[in-house]
Design a protein that fits this description.
Its cofactor is FAD. FAD binds at residues 118, 303. The chain has helices spanning 18-29, 46-50, 52-70, 84-95, 98-108, 160-163, 180-191, 211-223, 273-276, 313-327, 357-362, 378-383, 410-422, 427-430, 440-446, and strands spanning 9-14, 35-39, 111-115, 118-122, 125-128, 131-140, 144-146, 172-176, 195-199, 227-229, 234-239, 244-248, 251-255, 257-260, 264-266, 280-281, 284-285, 298-300, 342-344, 349-354, 367-373, 389-395, 400-407. The chain has 448 residues and is α/β, with parallel strands linked by helices. Strands 1, 2, 3, 4, 5, 6 and 18 form a seven-stranded mixed beta sheet that branches. Strands 19-20-23-22-21 form a five-stranded antiparallel beta sheet, with helices on both faces. The protein has a four-stranded parallel beta sheet with strand order 10-9-8-14, with helices on one face. The chain is globular and about 70 Å long. It starts with 8 loop residues before the first strand and ends with a helix. Bound molecules: flavin-adenine dinucleotide and nicotinamide-adenine-dinucleotide (NAD). Nicotinamide-adenine-dinucleotide is lined by residues 149, 176-182, 184, 201-202, 234, 261-264, 310-312, 342-345.
């Protein structure tokens, strides 16, 4: 596809996160598309600048400290101390190159960057600072923002972006929420020695994960000193001489910092969606199975979508690269998501992919569920990291269709089996895969 009309671009992206830039890079590499991208903030969006990359950089010393604790007296003497300020400084150092590097590769692939806040004017036009940019197709990839609590004193609450820039270690931290961000940041802070209150809205956390594993994770956080309180509804925040009081239906929690981790809402306001007729609600922009909105020339991708798969970086990448194939006429098929893995980067981690344990247990006529204790896995014993459980799910013909694990290496374990599920590798063919030994992938394959 090339410009065949009076529009300036073939494709104009609104936003430059993974929901946009991976697809734009691939489209630009084809060489015959005119592409523009509008970004109001840092190029690369949430994940590189204030999401996954920043978070995992902060988690590195956390994992290392747990590993050193496990190896005490087994070749390691002394428990390292996390230097909070230095950890945050290192996180900033490793992510600061990302927006520049992403913009450089976009430009090298022919993408024209337009810096500023964009708003739709009509089905083919985005206005930025008074200038109109036109395109055959527009992709809305504006991401999501932190959910605000509507309580008195909400202005004293901090969000995940603030946490990732918090250079002074809180003595006591209160976290509201029980999703990914709440438990991951609780794990980071508690390991560094901060006293953490983790306030769950319900009687559990991480509701999309296998609950016995979540209960085990919460118990391990309690063992590290985290004060977990269930069924909490926040009511008001008050500033005190030493910090803040969070008043709730379960009493008052005093701490020097409060993290509001109650979810993220799609960025749909002030984009001109109503004016142009793009349908959306509080769950996000509505699209058909080709990621096309109610306005045929406008598509949407990433966290801003109303979608059933997780609001994750890999799903945003998958959507933006699907759109590239669609625009390049390399496919006309509906989007079909592969099995989407997800991990909670706590210590221990929980990760899962494919058919869930609950689904499998509800349908014993279709699935076989195999539970494995990892205590005896030799490689993990050598790492002294053999506390954990894995559950593998097979269909009646013996094909692997799902897996979930809790362990310090659950992310690596689940990552190692994805092709078996996605490519429907039969039990015999699995023997054709030679793994590296000894590694987590060889240990994991032993359980299949
Ligand atoms: C703390 C945190 C940790 C996370 N950890 C993980 C993880 O470990 N693994 C994982 O898979 N996912 C993780 N995620 C989720 C992941 O970051 C998102 O799913 C992903 O970044 C979504 O990409 P996106 O392109 O849809 O949106 P974004 O990356 O948010 O990009 C949207 C962009 O659009 C821009 N924009 C918005 N409106 C306009 C406008 N009108 N004009 C111009 N520009 C505009 C914004 O400035 C932004 O740059 C995490 C998220 C957070 C917040
Ligand atoms: N490891 C990862 O893949 C990862 C890590 C971090 C974030 N993310 C993504 O970032 C997004 C945001 O993560 P999150 O953890 O903020 O959201 P989430 O939706 O996972 O969790 C929100 C939590 O807030 C609670 N909550 C909602 N309203 C509340 C209220 N009024 N009072 C108290 N608690 C309330 C919910 O019960 C839930 O536990 C998600 O889309 C997630 O997919 C992913």
């Amino acid at each position: 596809m090339m410009v065949t009309n009076d529009y300036q671009y073939d494709v104009l992206y609104l936003g430059s996160g993974h929901g946009a830039f991976n697809g734009a890079l691939a489209l630009g590499a084809k060489g015959d598309f005119k592409i523009g991208m509008v970004e109001a903030d840092k190029v690369g969006g949430t994940c590189p600048n204030r999401g996954c990359n920043a978070k995992i950089a902060l988690d590195m010393p956390v994992k290392l400290k747990h590993e050193a604790e496990n190896m005490q007296g087994k070749g390691i003497q002394g428990i390292p101390k996390i230097d909070w300020a230095a950890n945050v400084a290192h996180e900033k150092e490793v992510i600061k190159v990302l927006p520049g590097a992403i913009e450089e590769s976009l430009v090298a692939n022919g993408v024209e960057m337009i810096h500023g806040y964009g708003k739709l004017v009509d089905p083919h036009t985005i206005r930025v600072a008074g200038t109109d940019y036109t395109a055959t197709n527009i992709v809305i990839a504006t991401g999501a923002h932190y959910h605000q609590l509507d309580i008195p004193g909400a202005e004293f609450l901090h969000d995940g972006t603030d946490f990732l820039s918090l250079s002074v270690q809180p003595t006591e931290l209160t976290i509201v929420g029980g999703g990914y961000i709440a438990v991951e940041f609780a794990s980071i802070a508690a390991t560094a020695g901060t006293k953490v209150n983790l306030l769950l809205h319900h009687d559990t956390a991480l509701r999309q994960f296998y609950q016995p594993f979540v209960a085990d994770l919460l118990q391990q956080l309690v063992d590290q000193g985290v004060n977990i309180v269930k069924n909490v509804t926040p009511e008001a925040v008050k500033k005190t001489a030493n910090g803040y009081d969070l008043q709730t239906n379960q009493g008052t929690f005093s701490s020097d910092w409060i993290l509001n981790a109650t979810g993220r809402d799609p960025n749909t306001s002030n984009l001109g969606l109503e004016e142009v007729g793009v349908a959306y609600d509080q769950k996000g922009i509505k699209v058909n199975d080709h990621l096309q909105t109610s306005v045929p020339s406008i598509y949407a991708s990433g966290d801003v979508l109303d979608k059933k798969v997780g609001r994750l970086t890999p799903t945003a990448i998958y959507e933006s690269t699907y759109l590239t194939k669609l625009f390049a006429h390399e496919t006309s098929a509906a989007i079909k998501y592969p099995a989407v893995p997800s991990a909670v980067f706590t210590m221990p981690r929980i990760a899962q992919v494919g058919v869930t344990v609950d689904e499998a247990k509800q349908h014993p006529e279709t699935y076989k569920v195999v539970e494995s204790d990892l205590a005896g896995d030799w490689f993990r014993v050598s790492m002294r990291a053999n506390r954990g459980k894995a559950i593998t799910i097979f269909d009646q013909e013996g094909y692997l269709v799902g897996m979930t694990e809790i362990s310090s290496e659950a992310d690596n374990a689940i990552g190692s089996i994805l092709p078996f599920i996605e490519y429907h590798i039969d039990p015999e063919q699995m023997n054709d895969f030679i793994t590296l030994f000894p590694t987590i992938s060889s240990e994991t394959k032993n359980h299949l």
